[in-house]
Design brief:
By secondary structure, the protein is mainly beta. The protein has one domain. Helices cover 0% and strands 54% of the residues. The mean pLDDT is 83.
Length: 156
Amino acid sequence: MTLVAVPSPAADPRRRRPGYLERIAIEGDIAAYVVGRRTGVDTGSSTLTIADIARRIVLREAPAGSSVDAGFVFSSGITALDVAPDGSAAWIERRSRSPRSRSPESEVFAAARKGPIEVLDDGPGVEPKSLYLSDQTVNWVDDGITRSAPLPSAPS
């Protein structure tokens, strides 16, 4: 399965910029990965994709970050990512409003392969790379304390 497709030569010239792999997590046949793209001279955006690579199907896509004015005005991106064998995933996204921002904030997200994306925690105390999955539990550190929550289950 191709994770980062090469843009078609027939595509709009503004959309021909190739993507690049920013982050990847694999568990069995399931891959969660972030593809970044430059969308302008000083701007970019990223997409989180969760795919069943054995069956070659995308299970879910979600926005995963962006930057404006090369990150001087705003930047956000996934700093930690993990995926479960059932296609559910969890990640931490870190945001900064400007280089002068003293306390960038992070959000902890989790999602089943279908259904809503849940925010589990947010704030400046969330350690950006502290996320990991254990069984069906999301674990991360906030203000020096390990927190946990169950991974969401897919709606019936």
